[in-house]
Structure formats: structure tokens, C-alpha cells
Amino acid sequence: MTERGYKTGNNQAPPFSISYSPESGYRALKGESLDMKFEIIPNEGFFDPVNVKLRIKVPDPAIGFFTIYDQVHDLGTHAYPYCPVCYTQDLDPENPPEGYDFIKKAYSAAKKMKIESIDVHVHVRASGGGFVFEEKPFYRVFF
Fold first, then answer.
1. Could you give the CA distance from residue 106 to residue 79 in angstroms, rounded to a whole number?
2. pTM, entire model
3. Angle at 106 between CA 104 and CA 109, to 5 degrees
4. Which residue among 10, 66, 86, 89 sits deepest, i.e. has the most Cβ atoms within 10 Å of its Cβ?
């Protein structure tokens, strides 16, 4: 957990946390969808709305320091009682999202270099009640 704390800087216990699945380090096969589920877990007395954003980044598997996919998804503001938040990301480099056709070239180059997997970095950011909670799981996709 990488809790940022309150914007006002006080050191109170966090008013909420987030749990997510699959766990960081999850390994997927090419063509599989990454079905992410996030749950807002309020501490006693917390009822404020919570805004959840998700950033998904994929570094170039052949070079590493270039990013071939980087998107922020606003999963909305959620009111108490908090229902699970779900998001699905397709993981097929041969059929990338619209506007990301160059991923096919990066995937082809990686295969030629005998690279067997790519990493998917996720940044979960939830804010509510003056508090920001962040997690940064990563997932590996095998070709």
C-alpha cells in the first residue's frame, strides 16, 4: 500500500483503503483479458464519495524505456455504500486498442528478440475526504 495521506498533512489513520484483484504479479496469457476488481474499504465513520482513476502503462518489451501504451481511465466517483468497481483490459498485442496499431510492431520486434513477455503497470488512485490512496500493481503477459 502506498497511502499518500491527507492533503492537509495531518497524521490521522486513513479513512479508507482499496483492495484489488488480481494480486500484483499476476501472470496472464496472450489474448487473455485482465479483469480488475477494486473495492473501497471504508474505516469506521467514513461515508464520503471516492473518485477512482486507473492508469495503465505498457513499456516497450524490446527497449524497455519507451512506453507503447499509456491510458488513464476515470472509473467515476462512488458513494457509500461502495460497490465493487470493475475494469477489463484486453491483453492481445496482435489486436491492440484503436489508435495503438504500432503495438503490433513492438510485439513483432520482441518476438524476434525472443522476448517472451511484456509487463503491464497499473496505477490505482482513489481520492475522497481529503485523502489520496494509491497502489501500483503490475501484471505480466506471456506471448
1. 41
2. 0.81
3. 110
4. 89
Contact yes or no for 16/130 (Cβ under 8 A):
no
Question: What are the backbone angles phi and psi of residue 77, rounded to the nearest 5°?
Answer: -105, 130
- CA-closest candidate to residue 36, choices 44, 24, 48: 24
What is the per-residue pLDDT across 35-53, written as a single tens digit (0 to 9) for each?
899 999 999 889 999 999 9
C-alpha cell at 97: 486498442
Is residue 141 a contact partner of residue 118, using CB atoms and an 8 Å limit?
Answer: yes
What is the distance between the alpha carbons of residues 87 and 33, in angstroms, rounded to a whole number?
10
Q: Is 110 exposed, middle or buried (0-12, 13-18, 19+ CB in 10 A)?
A: buried
What's the full length of the chain, in residues? 143
